[in-house]
Amino acid sequence: MTKRVFEAWKGSNKFILGGRLIFGPDARSLPATLLLIIVPVALFCVFVARHLRHEFSSYNAGYAILVVAILFTIYVLILLSFTSARDPGIVPRNLHPPEEELRYETTISADGRQTPSVQIPRTKEVMVNGVSVRVKYCDTCMLYRPPRCSHCSICNNCVEHFDHHCPWVGQYIGQRNYRYYFMFVSSSTLPCIYVSSMSAFYIKILMDNQHGTVWRAMKASPWSVALMIYCFIALCFVGGLTAFHLYLISTNMTTL
Question: Where are its TM segments located (predicted)?
């Protein structure tokens, strides 16, 4: 019985739903990433947005605070799934070395014996848009890597426009999922800004309504303080990544 391609795949990828979804070998890190996204938003909805909803109940805007937080989260999770569960740009490996590149040589040992051997050049020149580019041979995939293609040692595949392997999404980032990765990272700043802003706004409301000082308001809503700290740390991380990849895109470079 003939096997489907994903059933005979020699890389380290994990396939589900009949090969329709492809993950990296460390996809087990995805649940941790999901928790880092979902848990803060859930805490915000329970301990902050629920109270803000009562504050704005007379203006019919209370539920909008909850809906916006949930929609931001769903949007980020969709981008995460597109990043981690699709082919990042794998170059199918060959079953045999390219015969047209094989070189047959004969070596002479110290005792005068001749030993035939087959070798393949480590590099070769190819023309790309009229420019000569040197490409390297991959012994694992038995092919000459296209320009800007690299072999990911973690997933054991050659990937077009290989950028880096991201443990947070459990996938390597390449030609076919880079845009989703960038959208995921940049969009992750939205819930961070929103949750921290609404938490700070709730502290302000507590100060105005009953507690008078920042310290008393913070003691009345410690979850707001915790969420602001968490979102500030997360914003530094995803905001820095967003700025870094904006620089890479503007200069037409990759991480590695």
Answer: 30-49, 61-83, 180-203, 223-249
